[in-house]
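User: Hey, my collaborator sent me this sequence without any context and asked if I could get a structure. I don't really work with proteins. Can you help?
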Amino acid sequence: MILDTNALSALADGDDSLLARLDTARELYVPVIALGEYRFGIRQSRYRRTYERWLEEALRDLTVLPILDATTREYAAVFQELRRAGTPIPSNDVWIAALCREHQMPLVSRDLHFGAVPGLRRISW
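Assistant: No problem. I've predicted the 3D structure and written it out in structure-token form, which is a compact way to encode the shape of the chain:
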């Protein structure tokens, strides 16, 4: 399963309902885009040091998905499909959707707009 930024935040906060959803996952992945968004959020938090420590620990168990050439191809396809359908989503989320399609894995997210992406399965909690 691939974790969106809001799932990463919920994981850091020990959200029991999220933990129950992730219980069956063999491995958890985080897109480099979501990692950047999360690090930005940490910088603004009054609990910065706590979340930085948590993240360093968590990254031992998470696989970070980089953007490669194959990802750019999926990005272009997703962006075009959404534009044609008249259902744009934030550009960072297009990258995250592209990674999900590239790796053929579901996305754990509370963001409903991912439902507009053809071929992407979103798991909420």
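In plain terms: The domain at 2-123 is CATH 3.40.50.1010 (Rossmann fold). You can pass these tokens on to your collaborator as they are.
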